[in-house]
Amino acid sequence: MEWEKKLRVGASVKNSKRLKFQIMHRQIHPTVYLIACDRAKGGRLEILPSTVLLQKEYPTEALYIVGMAGYKREAYEITASLIEDAYRVNQDYDVYRHLTGRGQMVC
After folding, report:
1. CA distance 104 to 95
2. Secondary structure string (H, E, C) spanning 50-99
3. Which residues, including other chains, have CB under 8 Å from residue 29's CB and lie 6 or more apart?
4. What is the pLDDT along the chain (107 residues), one digit of tens a residue?
5. Is 28 helix (H, G, I), strand (E, B) or coil?
6. Helices (H) and strands (E) in the chain, counts
7. How many domains is the chain built from?
8. pLDDT for position 103
9. Do the domain assignments include residue 59?
10. Does a structural domain hold residue 107?
11. In this structure, is residue 75 part of a structural domain?
């Protein structure tokens, strides 16, 4: 699991650095949603409840976390803003390339 340096955090999320640390150490919070660019599934954006990371078989090494939200509607809003920003700057929907400048991975 890799985290975006400029992680988009929703207004409802308090103490995002602590939450990030806890999520990385499998202390999951049921009200936190992660916006991830999944490299294993062709690079599409996904909204994941943080509880899904408790599953032992879940492939976390392919995830590139780009946002964190306190509730699902906020996660949709962050996802929409990521896509809008990528399109406005690059004239395409490649969010991964827009954020990292690395290669092409259509999110």
Report:
1. 9
2. HHHHHCCCCCHHHEEEEEEECCHHHHHHHHHHHHHHHHHHHCCCCHHHHH
3. 19, 22, 23, 50
4. 888 888 999 999 998 899 989 888 888 788 899 999 877 665 688 899 988 888 878 777 778 899 999 999 999 999 999 888 888 877 776 777 767 666 555 45
5. coil
6. 3, 4
7. 1
8. 57
9. yes
10. no
11. yes
Please list, residue by residue across 88-103, b when 16 or more beta carbons sit within 10 angstroms of its beta carbon and e when fewer do: eeeeebbbbbbbeeee
Tokens linked to 44: 């599409």
Order of all β-strands in the sheet with 63-69: 2-9, 63-69, 33-38, 44-49
pLDDT value at residue 104: 53
93 residue type, one letter:
Y
**Domain span at residue 94?**
2-100
SS3 call for 11: coil
Give a yes or no: residue 6 inside a domain.
yes
Residue at token pair 């991964």: 96
